[in-house]
Amino acid sequence: xxxxxxxxxxxxxxxxxxxxxxxxxxxxxxxxxxxxxxxxxxxxxxxxxxxxxxxxxxxxxxxxxxxxxxxxxxxxxxxxxxxxxxxxxxxxxxxxxxxxxxxxxxxxxxxxxxxxxxxxxxxxxxxxxxxxxxxxxxxxxx
Length: 142
Ligand SMILES: CC(C)(COP(=O)(O)OP(=O)(O)OC[C@H]1O[C@@H](n2cnc3c(N)ncnc32)[C@H](O)[C@@H]1OP(=O)(O)O)[C@@H](O)C(=O)NCCC(=O)NCCS
Hints:
The protein is α+β, with helices and mostly antiparallel strands. 19% of the residues lie in helices and 38% in strands. The protein has helices spanning 6-12, 44-63, and strands spanning 24-29, 67-77, 86-96, 100-111, 117-130. A five-stranded antiparallel sheet has the order 1-3-4-5-2, with helices on one face. A hairpin with a 5-residue loop joins β4 (100-111) and β5 (117-130). The site of coenzyme A has 14 residues, from β2 and β5.
């Protein structure tokens, strides 16, 4: 194989579009200094907000309209997130009910570009409900 060009090298170093279990890359973001807590790590509430946004991507597509987060069924901070980490959010639909859609979200941090490491930092399970214009549950479209 020929030596990769600088552009190809950049692509080779990008996070994969899917994980082995089929979870899709739905969001990538880097925290800012304003997101740091008193310990110097990234504030857990900031990560929860990003997970809620990332978790909503697939349910919105399936519900074809408005959704609301009804429950965070599980949330585990496995490793701290540091300034400079580039976070990739992967989501997989785990259940489609009558009006609700549940997803599993994994967050992976890329750190230390000189000697790149990928670390799973957070895992969560969330449930979203398809809602109508009055904010009431509506059936998930077939
Ligand atoms: C989402 C909302 C419209 C649901 O209304 P509701 O009258 O409680 O609805 P239901 O009890 O009929 O439940 C709707 C679905 O959610 C599911 N659900 C409710 N609570 C759940 C929980 N704790 N975990 C998993 N699923 C849950 C139900 O099983 C049902 O799914 P199904 O139809 O697929 O079987 C309403 O609770 C609401 O507006 N919540 C606030 C949403 C919001 O503002 N979110 C942003 C965070 S601040």
